[in-house]
Design goal:
about 200 residues; five-stranded mixed sheet; alpha/beta
């Protein structure tokens, strides 16, 4: 197949090379990141200078990358900056927390042969502290059918992790326990989940 300019750039980056493009249009930058991830078969981190330009990049990547993502050729992640530092002012939105954790978990759990990820982020986000890799690998429970959990102990773990106990789950970061039914909306999930328990066994 004939070599395209993007193919040449991907080959240049593999051994640690570099290149410079002056002020490309936002959509062109997103397209280049997508192509480099597929052709170079390695992680691409697209870094913007702030929240507004990050939002534009994220929208362009999501739109232009629909076909590649659906075909399993790429994986696009969004890693925004804290709007306020944890412990200062109002707590960060659950969506923002979920986006950051989902991106970090994807990186530490990624296996060989999986699509090269593209991470849309900003300078500010990369300068802020994150969770340790070991906690990201082993500090989160993957619930499966047949697993044994103690409801009272599990809900205490959710509270310690910052989840809110509610009568009815309406947004991310909330859970509700009613008898043998646990409704939970993980901060990394687009929709809530319902867990039915038979005693201490996930049914």
């Amino acid at each position: 197949a004939a070599q395209t300019p993007v193919t040449g750039l991907a080959q240049l980056l593999r051994p640690g090379g570099a290149f410079f493009i002056s002020n490309p249009p936002p959509a062109a930058a997103a397209h280049l990141a997508l192509e480099l991830a597929v052709l170079g078969k390695r992680t691409v981190v697209a870094i913007t200078d702030g929240a507004k330009t990050l939002d534009v990049l994220w929208r362009d990547l999501s739109t232009l990358g629909q076909a590649q993502t659906a075909a399993g050729k790429s994986h696009i992640s969004y890693f925004p900056a804290w709007e306020s530092l944890p412990g200062h002012g109002a707590p960060p939105p659950a969506d923002l927390i979920g986006d950051r954790i989902a991106t970090l978990q994807m990186l530490v759990r990624r296996k060989d042969g999986q699509p090269a990820p593209i991470i849309a982020t900003s300078v500010q986000a990369l300068m802020q502290r994150t969770l340790p890799p070991e906690l990201l690998k082993h500090g989160f429970d993957d619930l499966r059918e047949g697993m044994e959990i103690e409801p009272d102990h599990f809900t205490q773990e959710l509270l310690a992790a910052g989840y809110d106990a509610q009568i009815e789950v309406q947004r991310k970061g909330q859970f509700a326990l009613r008898g043998g039914i646990l409704d939970l909306w993980p901060v990394t999930a687009p929709v809530p989940v319902r867990i039915e328990l038979f005693g201490t066994t996930i049914d």
